């Protein structure tokens, strides 16, 4: 009997999932049991390729729909009250911990800078022990402190 470690089991499981996804071995519901998608004109598709093409058109239309929201609507949104109880600025450990908790591939804020950028400035524990690591973390710390004190950050440090 062949013994497999966790890595080998994960590898085999991944390969089987890919084969199942491609339709080679079917899936838990059985191969080809998914209902077909209707074409944009409402006619039913009769092949998997036709169904996939109709679904692609639908998704492109759905995700590229013009918005009906108006910019003035944002002015009407109730703003959160200022929380004076926040008190002291976060220390380095808090900044590092919460920066590392930020999720990857999420929508960036108004400045269009993704969380991955800030995570690079923090780096690993080993990175933080080097002089370069401390310098890059110092940039992030200064941004966090400016945001903490003023509620916004100037873009001077980006240039």
Textual characterization of the structure:
The protein has 159 residues and is mainly alpha-helical. Among the domains are: 36-63, no CATH class; 89-158, no CATH class. It contains 7 helices and no strands. The radius of gyration is 25 Å and the shape is flat.
Please give the structural blueprint.
Layout: H1 6-22, H2 48-63, H3 71-76, H4 92-101, H5 115-122, H6 125-128, H7 131-150
Helix pairs in contact: 5-7
List keywords for this structure.
0% strand; 159 residues
The stretches of 5 or more residues where confidence is low (pLDDT under 50) are 25-31
Instruction: Provide the succession of SSEs.
Output: HHHHHHH
Largest sheet: none
What is the count of helical runs? 7
Radius of gyration (Å): 25 Å
Portion in helices: 40-55%
Summarize the structure.
The chain has 159 residues and is an all-alpha fold. 51% of the residues lie in helices and 0% in strands.
